[in-house]
Structure formats: structure tokens, C-alpha cells
Amino acid sequence: xRKPLIFAVSVLLSSPSFAADFSLTSDSVVNGQPISNTFxxxxxxxxxxxxxxxxxxxxxxxxxxxFALTYFDMDAPTGSGFWHWSVFDIPGNVTHINxxxxxxxxxxxxxxxxxxxxxxxxxxxxxQIGEVHRYQWKLTALDVxxxxxxxxATPQIVALTxxxxxIDDVTLxxxxxxx
Length: 179
Fold this sequence. Notes:
The chain is an alpha+beta fold. The chain contains two helices and ten strands. A hairpin with an 8-residue loop joins strand 4 and strand 5. The longest helix is centred in the first third of the chain and has 13 residues. Pfam families: PBP.
């Protein structure tokens, strides 16, 4: 009786439902909380430092060959949000992005895509005066080392391509408002 019980418990504990969850964290920003001016844009009427926060992730899904990371304004008054940053082909063994101005130094092999203004590079948060917007960092674990798109792809095309190769994703949502 003991052997079947031990076997059953070991199977349950090794199943995916007991595996630690894929997670995205930051020492610079907190999920669900307002961000500092450091992470605001330095254009479009905003006077921030245009920095990307340090971001780290843990418990990478099995089979991950690369990652894509996006920053998206869920409340932009466009009818479809606003893409502030898109980077992909982040090597699968990387578990951290160093923050800094315009994304800092990205890991070797990482591709920086276009934003919704049609240019490459990071654009910090810059909601309309009197509004608070939700901004979502999304990290997606991918089943390919390289996405079949290049740095000239629109963020929407990158997002569609990411979906086709998604293993799992995690988000970190922050708030930004201006008076």
C-alpha cells in the first residue's frame, strides 16, 4: 500500500499544476501601482527621463527558446491602445533586462522593433493630462529562437507573430497619470 501512495504523491508533485509560475518582476516598478516620472516619456508634452525599468523573470517554461517583451498603453484614446516598445529574439537563457535610457543595453541578439509612432526605441508613458492609464509590460516565452519578422515590422505584426509561437506569457501592469 505504501508504494502506490508514494508513487501517486510523487506524480502529483511533479505535475505542472505544482510547478512554480512563470513570473515577471521589477525592483523599479510595482504591479498595479503608479510609476515615477523616471519612466515617463521625454516627448509629447511629458518631461520624464524615458527610462525602461529593470525587469526580471523566473520559472521559465520548458521549451523556451526566446522571449518577446512589449510595453503597451491599454487606455490610449486610439481605439486599439498604443505600443510603446517591442523587443524580441531575447535569448532563451536571459532572465533579466537592465533598465535605463531608451532600454539601456539589450542582450546580444535581441531585436528592437518599431513603436506606434513608426520608430524604433522605447517611448515612456505619457497619458493625456488629467487621465490615468494602465500600461502593461508583457513577456512572452516563445518556441523559436528567432521570430520570422525583422526590426521593420509594425508592433501589431510582431504581436501576431508572437501569438503564433507563444508557450506562455506574464504581465506586469503599472499606472501612469498626469495632472
